[in-house]
From TrEMBL, chains A, B:
Enzyme class label: oxidoreductase
Domain Meso-diaminopimelate D-dehydrogenase C-terminal residue range list: 121-274
Subunit structure: Homodimer.
GO biological process entries: diaminopimelate biosynthetic process; lysine biosynthetic process via diaminopimelate
UniProt protein name: Meso-diaminopimelate D-dehydrogenase
Length: 325, 325
C-alpha cells in the first residue's frame, strides 16, 4: 500500500511516542516529523525532531498534525496555533471547556480552510460514540459509564505529594458486583464514588509514619473522601516490578426498554495494557478520517460524532462491505 | 419536539410491529402508514394499513420507508421497488449477496434521487460497526464474533420438521470459557462450531420415539453435525411458559497489540430480550440518518459504515458535544 497520508506529531511525551509507534502499524501513513518546544536530539523512529517554532515551514509537506500536548493548557494554545496551517487531531478532554475549545478551533480552521477533529481518544472518544449510539437506539433507558481498572495519574500524583511517600500509584476499580448487576439488566441509581474503589500502592520512606500516610490519603478531600479506599504499603522493588505500567479501560452500558418488560443491554468495554498507546492508536485512525474529510471538502472543527467509520479504515467501501459488514 | 420525520413501514411481521413500537418512543418521528401485500384490517397503533400496490400514492407524504420484509427474497424485490419513490432503510442480511444488492439499490436510488441505507440492524449493523472501528484502531490483532444466547429461527424450524416433534426452540449459546479467555486477552484459533453450543427444547408428540428424535437432531447435516448439541424434552406447558420469547445477543471482540507484550481488548456486547424489537429500534434510528443524509444532498445506497453517529440522534451537534462527548 502506498503511504498516502503524511502526518506530524506535536508534543513528544507518552502520547506522542504512542502515535509514533501506531503509525508504524499503518501501511498508508507516513510520519514525517516530530515537533516539540523542547530541544529534542532524536526520536525513537529516527524521523526528524523539529522545533515547534518551525512548524509553518512544513505546510504542504504534512497532511495532518496530531496534537499530543500533555495537558489541556498545551492544547488550548497549540490547537489554534497549528490549525492555522494544518488539519489537526487532538485529544482535548477537559469536558467543561469543550464548547469553547470547539468554537475556537472551528473559527480558526474555517478561516484557514483546514479541518480539526477534537476530543479524540477513548473517553472522550470511543466511549462517547457508544453513549450516542446506544441512546439513539434505545431512547428509553439508562446510561452507565465505569472507568478502570486503571491508573489515575492525578490521584497517584496527589499521594506522592504526602510527606513520607517515596512513590505511589492509584488504580481506579469499578465495583464488580455493580457492573455485573447492570450487565444482567438491572438499572440501579448510582453515584460514581459509590461504584468505584480507589486502590493505592505506596512506597514509603524508611522512617515514615504509615498510619499517618494512610490517614492523609483517606481524608484527602475531592480525591479520596467519599470513596472506598484501600492502601497497600509495598517495597520499592515490588513497585518497580508490578506497578510501572499505565493500564486503563472501562465500560459503557445502556440498559433500555422497547416495551414494558422487554429489556436490552448494550455494553462497550475496553481493557487496555497502555492507556497512552491505545489513545494514540485512536488518534492515528482519526488522522485518516481528517484526511478524507478534507478531501470531501470539509473545513472547520468536528468531533468523533461527525465522522463515518468508513473514513477510519484504509480500505475501500467495497472492501468494507464485503469483509466487515 | 416537532414530529419532523414521517416514516412508513413496509411489511407487518415481527420487525414491522417492532418499528411501529419504536416510533412511539421517538418524539421527532411520525408513523404515517403501514404497507402490506396482505389484506390488513388494522394496526396496533391505529395508523392506516394500506395495500403495497398503492405505495406510490404516498410520495411526498412519507420521508423514509422502513422495509421490514421477512426474508431476503422480500427485500430483493421490495427494495428496488420502494427506492424508486422513497428513501429507504432495510435489514438485508444475506451476507454473500450484499455486494449485488448494494449495487442494485445504489443504481435505483441514484436514478430516483433517493437515499437507501441497507443492511441495518445489529449483525449486520452494530456488530459490523464495531468490527470496523476496532480493526481501524488496532490494525495488528484478531477479531472474534459470538452470537447468543439467542433463538435461531432456522434451527428451530429444522427441528419442528422432524416426525414426532410438536414444537421446538433452539438456542445458540457461546461457550463461556472461550468468551472469558478472549475477554482476558487470549487469542485462540477457533472455529464457530467449536465455540457455540446448540441447546434444543423439544415438545414431542405423546407417542413419539424420543431417542429417534434426539438422534435425528444431532445427526442433521449443516444444522447440528459438528456442534455440541443438547436436547431437552419438555412439556407443552413448560414450553409455553418459558420459551415463547425471541431473545438474542452476542459479542464482538478485537484483541490487538500496539507493541510487543502490550495488549488491548475491545468488546461490544448485546443482551436482547427481543431480537425483532431491538432490530426495529436500530432501523428507526437509521431512518433519522436517512432523512439527514437526504437533507445533506445524498443520493444512492450506503451502509452503517457511511453514516456519522450524530445523524442518529434528534439532538443538535451542540447538545451532543455538551451532553455525550
Amino acid at each position: 500500500m502506498k503511504k498516502t497520508i503524511k502526518i506530524g506529531i506535536v508534543g513528544y511525551g507518552n502520547l506522542g511516542k504512542g502515535v509514533e509507534l501506531a503509525a508504524t502499524q499503518c501501511d498508508d501513513i507516513e510520519l514525517v516529523a516530530v515537533f516539540s518546544r523542547r530541544e529534542l536530539t532524536e526520536t525513537q523512529s529516527g524521523v526528524p525532531a523539529v522545533s515547534l517554532d518551525k512548524i509553518a515551514e512544513y505546510q504542504g509537506k504534512i497532511d495532518v498534525m496530531l496534537l499530543c500536548g500533555g495537558s489541556a493548557t498545551d492544547l488550548e494554545v497549540q490547537g489554534p496555533l497549528v490549525a492555522q496551517y494544518f488539519n489537526t487531531i487532538d485529544s482535548f478532554d477537559t469536558h467543561a471547556k469543550i464548547p469553547t475549545y470547539f468554537a475556537c478551533m472551528d473559527e480558526t480552521a474555517k478561516k484557514a480552510n483546514t479541518v480539526s477533529i477534537i476530543s479524540v481518544g477513548w473517553d472522550p472518544g470511543l466511549f462517547s460514540l457508544n453513549r450516542l449510539l446506544a441512546t439513539s437506539v434505545l431512547p428509553n433507558g439508562q446510561d452507565y459509564t465505569f472507568w478502570g481498572k486503571g491508573v489515575s495519574q492525578g490521584h497517584s500524583d496527589a499521594i506522592r505529594r504526602i510527606a513520607g511517600v517515596k512513590n505511589a500509584k492509584q488504580y481506579t476499580i469499578p465495583k464488580e458486583e455493580v457492573v455485573n448487576a447492570i450487565r444482567s439488566g438491572e438499572c440501579p441509581a448510582i453515584k460514581g464514588n459509590e461504584v468505584h474503589l480507589r486502590d493505592c500502592y505506596v512506597v514509603a520512606e524508611d522512617d515514615a509514619d504509615l498510619t499517618a500516610i494512610e490517614a492523609a490519603i483517606k481524608t484527602m478531600p475531592n480525591y479520596f473522601v467519599g470513596y472506598e479506599t484501600i492502601v497497600h504499603f509495598i517495597s520499592e522493588t515490588e513497585f518497580n516490578e508490578k506497578h510501572t505500567g499505565i493500564p486503563h479501560g472501562g465500560f459503557v452500558f445502556r440498559n433500555g426498554q422497547t416495551s414494558p418488560g422487554t429489556n436490552h443491554v448494550i455494553e462497550f468495554a475496553l481493557k487496555l495494557d497502555s492507556n497512552p498507546e491505545f489513545t494514540s492508536s485512536v488518534l492515528v485512525a482519526y488522522a485518516r478520517a481528517a484526511y478524507r474529510l478534507k478531501q470531501h471538502g470539509g473545513s472547520g472543527a468536528s468531533t468523533v460524532f461527525d465522522i463515518p467509520f468508513a473514513w477510519l479504515s484504509p480500505k475501500s467501501g467495497e472492501e468494507l462491505r464485503k469483509e466487515l459488514l
